[in-house]
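Extended Data, panel c. Modelled sequence:
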Amino acid sequence: MSTAAPAKNDYTAASSLQVLEGLEAVRKRPSMYIGGVDAKGLHHLVWEIVDNSVDEYLNGHADSVIVTLHKSGDAVTVADNGRGIPVDVHPKHKMTGLELVLTTLHAGGKFGEGDGYKYSGGLHGVGASVVNALSRKLVATIRRDGFEWEQTYKRGKPMTELQQVGPFRGHGTTIFFEPDPDIFKTTQFDPHLIRTHLEDMSYIHSGLKITLKNDVTKEVFDLTHPGGIPEFLDRLISENKQAKVTEAPFKLVRQDGDKMEVALQWTESTDETIRSYVNGIRTSSGGTHEGGFKAGVVKAIRNFMATHEVKTKGLTITAEDVREGLVGILSVFVRNPLFQGQTKERLNNEEMTAVVDNFVRPQLESWLNANMTAADQIVGRIVLAAKARLASREAASEVKRKSATQRRLNLPGKLADCKATELDITELFIVEGDSAGGSAKQGRDNRTQAVLPLRGKILNSEGLPLAKVLSNTELNDLVSAIGTGAGEKFDLVGLRYGKIILLMDADADGYHISTLLLAFFFRHMPELIKKGRLFIAQPPLYKIEVGKETFWARDDVHKEEIIAGLRANAKPEVGRFKGLGEMDPQVLKATTLDPRHRTLLRVEIASLLEADRRFVELLGKDPSFRAKFVLESSGRAVAEELDV
């Protein structure tokens, strides 16, 4: 490990740490802090500790992070060569800086000024303490001030005093932790997921050396990528086998002030792929910075077309036309990031929309003017996208106009169709069972919303030929209702609804049926996903009444968040829906069907290879992975979810 000496006055002191509140709620409601106690929440522990190490790099104090997955598969060590967490005693709180950071929520060096952090992965200050609280064992090893120090914790509490191990010339922090099996459904880490996450980070932080040691397989991976974001862009395009429209990508870096970096390139794909990062953390749900990026790209293209008087022969170029086939990566660094939730999947800083827009738009416009050959290729591709969209719409209208009667005769008898035919306003809800279908039919707007009930769990289509799949009545009815056909006969022109929405019970059975349907769409009707037509509804699982107020919770995590936010003397009455069929149609309408109040999740594919691997593992013929998954996920957590 590198032991290069830091710059003068780079070391923090315990007095620079600020305490906001205690740690009492973490073990009681872990999902509020890590998003869940499933595999995603488990791996979030790793990301929290790694983010702390990366923060040292961002602020010029480290250049190396080593992550070790130990032989047991349920323990991880993260080591960096940063300054090392302070070990002196905090003057106000009368405990060492290390113990303060690891046992107190919102304690850290990221809140104030001075010798703390200029950039960090978030100002919540809960990462290390939450990992400690949710670990059956955590060992912190600190190297600073000429010595090596060590302290052991158990479920958030110190088991030993801070001990001076001996003299040490280097500096850095090493955190070893074992997640608590009393908290998590599984404590076995996924080496592939860890590697993918770290490798993505290495592109964003091209100057940081990231190493993964997998003691399970005795492999060591150097994940460093000095080529940075442009290299990342090329990998994404190659991975998805997309043909490039231009030979070279557009690249842009701002080093003065807050650093920003962009790389983008148009492809012949019909998909739009944008990955955004804030202070090195992937914002999978986008946010204000991503909105500014999209707006900047569209404005630059439109300004270029207006300046050069590009003739579009009556075509209206939409923002979707401009971004069709675009693959882009955006990385911004923000001094005070405001994330939506502790899992930091979305940025909410309002000012970042204009900041990123003003960063991207003029530079991209200048690049287009300076690279006319590339600009002509890009604009030509955009015009073709607009023509294809218009042709598809006209063809669809013609088909509907000529054969509306015949098409309705061929529709499944159990389909409750809607009156309208315009894609922009029509929706098809796919529901499980006649009971849920009855509630949905009564609660829907029959002008624009259609309902197709499915009976029981559908056929697992993973690995099956299309002919076998369509011999299943439920799936054949589904394809008939949608109108596009499937497989090689798929034709988007026949699409009968603008949105295809999976509406399942908010429980394990509902999730299983949704997964089976997602596999079917991914294998046999992927264009619906690529075109952004497939959605998942979010019906409530709980009704929470407090006096005259009513709250709706999607799941256990959401329920706990709502209850935690109630006034101290509140006495909530919590009711759980066993299924959509028992929900009053007006309640279903108000919470799930009405576009004014509902929440829909758009189904997207971040990586075709990763999606393919997941479906093969979860639904494929080889039962070994599923057996492992079931064994790790069974027991206490599953028993608590059973309806008896």
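The chain has 20 helices and 24 strands. This feature is highlighted in the accompanying rendering.
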